[in-house]
Amino acid sequence: MATLNASITLSLGATLVNALDLGDVTQNVNNASNFALTDGTGANQAKSLFSDTRTLAASGTENLDLAATLIDAFGAAITFTKIKALIIKASAANTNDVVVGGHATAACFSFFGAATHTLKVKPGGMIALVAPDANGYPVTATTADMLTVTNSAGGTGVTYDVIIIGVA
Prior knowledge:
- This protein is an all-beta fold.
- The chain has one domain (41-167): Jelly Rolls (Sandwich), CATH 2.60.120.
- The protein is built from no helices and 14 strands.
- Strands 4, 8, 11, 12 and 14 form a five-stranded antiparallel sheet that branches.
- Residues 1-19 form the signal peptide.
């Protein structure tokens, strides 16, 4: 049986400088968050991992069924019941945005305010949602389990990386 251990680190270092007549005013911001997940189903735990690089044709759409069709690295189907981390990174070579969310009938909208809401991932950009608590982002098979990913426009395809960590 496979066991999961994950470390998700998000870090920001920024400096803002305002040049004045007789000196500079500087603001430094350093913020880092580290989320450690061990094998299990409770707080700060997860059991399953899905990762892939995917490509959508111009104006294309796909539905990632979080409770049925995703396959892990060992060939086993994953039926997530809660998501602890969702990371989507758009290729810098993309011309169009990668749009996440908005499934018409069975949206996994626990990431969003409502089933029709979406997030745009700009070329070279990423989104990272982390919910280390015991509940995570809930997934309900057949009624709230579809994560729709759409190429925002025609003309060119888009490529993106997706990483989903959760409890199955």
